Amino acid sequence: MTAVSILGDNDRDAGVVEEICGYLTEAPPRSYFLFAGAGSGKTRTLVEVLRRLTGVIEHEKGEQLALRLRMYGRSIKVVTYTKNAVSVINARLGDNDLVSVSTIHSFCWELINGFNDDIREALIAIKEAQLAKETAEAQAKPKGITFAKQRDLDEIKNDIEDFRATDVFIYHPDRNTYGSGALAHNHVLDVTAWLLRNKSTLQTILKDRHPIVLIDESQDTMKGVLDALMELAGREGRNLAIGLLGDHRQRIYPDGHVDLPSLVPQNWATPELQMNHRSQRRIVTLINRIWEAELEGRTQPVNGVAQHSRTEKAGGAVRIFVGDTSRSPEGKVLGERWCAEQMYEATGITFWNEGQYQLLALEHKLVATRGSFLDAYEAMVLLDPNAAAPSGSGDNKGPSAVQFLLNELAQLEDCVGIDGSVDEFKATEIFRQYGCLENMPDDNAARLNRADEMLKAITAFAVACINPKSTVEDVLAPILDVNLFEIDRRLVEAYADKSPPLPAPGRGEEESKQARMRRGWCALFSAPWNQLKRYRNYLSGLSELATHQVVKGSEFMHVMVVMDDDMASGSLISYDKIFGGMELSKRDKENVALGKETTIDRTLRLLYVTCSRAEETLVLVLWSSNPTAALAQIRKSKWFAEDEVLVIP
Ligand SMILES: Nc1ncnc2c1ncn2[C@@H]1O[C@H](COP(=O)(O)OP(=O)(O)OP(=O)(O)O)[C@@H](O)[C@H]1O
């Protein structure tokens, strides 16, 4: 093979940048959807397009567009999934006032901030629609509106009244916002989508500021906002162009559209990137097979192009190991080490016997079990299922009602030495930071009394912190008893409520939000305190097993993917079903018949995402409920060669 042909093969996508520049500089500009698989260099393509469209790199039509943007004080908006992606794109673009990069939350808030009457109207309309829908659904059930459901409906009505009474709405895209008028992250997205659909002022503002909007990771972008933008681009074809970048095969959040490619309007351009610059050929072949697989229970279409690896990346190694899921968690950890050892023996790559590989799993429960913080995690899920686990965009900081435990109390714990001594200087700083010293009595004696009370509380807190047997309640009690901080009302009330939790609902039984939260609070108060620290690390992406947060957009030389249905919450994911260790359920078959998304679809995409992170070598470990059946199907499938399939003894 000659140098020229190597270059030719590797450069098969070289024309895509120019192709996209052509669409966006057409008069009027044309919207597009870029099919771009794993490791295809989406960010690089995006940045190269932006450089040409803003006159950084010589480009005749780009320079004309730049001139027009500058003349009207406009810019191209790039919407990314994470704050990290904002910095990556900004760093690669350099100083460029014709491009403005934001996360979707910032983008939405930039548009609606200050339009308080519109925000209120949208919030009320959204909640009223929710109320009507949930009421109708409950009425249609044989039991009608149960007591538990009525409580939930009343809560929606209360929210509507609260919105009506709010004058000014506040929000911070980078953190949770508290206090009167505070909007949650999802409110901001819902409100923006509603206003883009219903208010011409906002539509005009958007196209006047940003005639071109490019959305990265569009497969996971909240569908409400995406639909509103696509609808607007359809209507305002001459004034607003949308570019969607992403890989529908890598959709991992339920916020995105089930099958985005099929929603792309006919008149949009659909360029394609065919290269995978990241992985060795063996891995690229595997991910192509995974995506093309015709599995029973699959409803998602096989749209999108097969990828090509770089010519010089013609190697790579893959193994799948199958073991019995009835093993203990410790036994499984040992089994996984054995697999790594086998990989070392097969490839001679020393990283595998030095623990220098990236463990990946996408089930939060698995991470929580391996990381020894399962009680804390499960309590958080009961308190707020949407906020308990880290999210790819880095928004989730845990349930809002427990922020005091995760922030103030965690900071206070940092002032406690391993012997239980308290660094009083540091502790005082924290009290000052949170305004705990502002209401000290003026009277000298009362002041001394209060200081003494505070000292006793922090000493008791320190003793509880260093005791490995302490529960969250043990640590919290001394602090709450003396009202040291201004604490979220929900936490204070839950602590004061000494009623026992109701039992968990049986299969098919309904549970009110309040009853679920009461179970969550009780579980949290009795969880070991030391689990909270591990839970915090997990939220910030620091646990040994990587989850979505780390996986999105990352790459690692050597990857081990651990698949264990026992640790998957609910029935949304099942590796055993795609590998043949378990039959499809009745529900799966019903979903197939209705053409709905199935367990198989979701699991296949998770597998695609995790496998495509590997550059050189990849180990898959399946803990199966029926290893014999799974092995038979794996051997029959064309995914792996005979010598790539092994049994964990
Ligand atoms: N044109 C190119 N030539 C050589 N290497 C490239 C090229 N484009 C990207 N790469 C390299 O390939 C790897 C994958 O690129 P990148 O992470 O941008 O892909 P991606 O499309 O964002 O992938 P994913 O969606 O899987 O996260 C990176 O290591 C990047 O440096």
What does the model show?
The chain is of the alpha/beta class and 649 residues long. It folds into four domains: 3-99 and 210-276, 3-Layer(aba) Sandwich (Rossmann fold), CATH 3.40.50.300; 115-168; 281-370 and 544-647, Rossmann fold; 374-539, no CATH class. The protein contains 29 helices and 13 strands. The strands form three sheets. A six-stranded parallel beta sheet has the order 3-2-4-5-1-6, sandwiched between helices. It has a five-stranded parallel beta sheet with strand order 10-11-12-9-13, sandwiched between helices. α13 runs antiparallel to α28. Residues 1-7 have low confidence and may be disordered. Bound molecules: adenosine-5'-triphosphate. The site of adenosine-5'-triphosphate (ATP) has 15 residues, from α3. GO terms for molecular function: 3'-5' DNA helicase activity; ATP binding; DNA binding; hydrolase activity.
Q: What ligand species are in this complex?
A: adenosine-5'-triphosphate
* SS strand fraction: 5-15%
CATH architecture of the largest domain: 3-Layer(aba) Sandwich
Number of domains: 4
Strand order of the largest sheet: 3-2-4-5-1-6
Organism: Limnobaculum eriocheiris
Domain UvrD-like helicase ATP-binding: 15-293
InterPro entries: DNA_helicase_UvrD/REP, P-loop_NTPase, UvrD-like_ATP-bd
Binding site for ATP: 36-43
